[in-house]
């Protein structure tokens, strides 16, 4: 399960990309995130994957996303904007 509680992302101390987002995704499932350009879809994923600084709380399977990714993430390259996370289920 991925849980986001009161998640906000601000770029350059002025542009608020996400504003107090609450979200719970129970798995295993395939979930799509849809919305218009500039609505924060990519920013939300970057926050979950630890690629964007955020305020609030993001948990994956009951632990902080930072701790989860540190334990389970095999490869992290910001150059290609790609994370490879093993299938732990």
Topology:
Layout (H helix, E strand, L loop, with lengths): L1 E10 L3 E11 L15 H8 L6 E6 L2 E2 H8 L2 E3 L4 E3 L5
Antiparallel strand pairs: 1-2, 1-3, 3-4, 5-6
CATH architectural group: 3-Layer(aba) Sandwich
Count of DSSP H/I helices: 2
User: Which CATH class applies here?
Assistant: Alpha Beta
What fold name stands as the CATH topology?
A: Rossmann fold
The count of domains is: 1
Low-confidence stretches: none
Structural class: alpha+beta
Work out the helicity level.
10-25%
What general outline do the C-alpha atoms trace? globular
The counted number of beta strands is 6
Q: What is the element string, with H for helices and E for strands?
A: EEHEEHEE
Q: Describe the biggest sheet?
A: 4 strands, antiparallel
Kindly, what is the distance between the CA atoms of the first and last residues, rounded to a whole number of angstroms?
11 Å
Widest beta sheet: strand line-up? 2-1-3-4
Q: What would you say this structure looks like, in words?
A:
The protein has a single domain (2-84), classed as P-loop containing nucleotide triphosphate hydrolases (Rossmann fold, 3-Layer(aba) Sandwich). It is of the alpha+beta class and 89 residues long. The longest helix has 8 residues, at 41-48. The protein is globular, with a radius of gyration of 13 Å. It has helices at 41-48, 65-72; strands at residues 2-11, 15-25, 55-60, 63-64, 75-77, 82-84. It has a 4-stranded antiparallel sheet with strand order 2-1-3-4. The N and C termini lie close together (11 Å). It is built from 2 helices and 6 strands, in the order ββαββαββ.
């Amino acid at each position: 399960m991925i849980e986001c509680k009161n998640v906000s992302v601000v770029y350059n101390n002025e542009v608020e990309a996400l504003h107090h987002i609450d979200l719970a995704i129970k798995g295993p499932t395939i979930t799509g995130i849809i919305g218009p350009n500039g609505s924060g879809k990519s920013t939300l994923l970057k926050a979950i994957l630890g690629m964007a600084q955020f305020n609030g709380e993001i948990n994956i399977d009951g632990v902080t996303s930072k701790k989860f990714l540190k334990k389970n993430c095999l490869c992290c390259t910001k150059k290609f904007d790609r994370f490879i996370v093993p299938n732990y289920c």
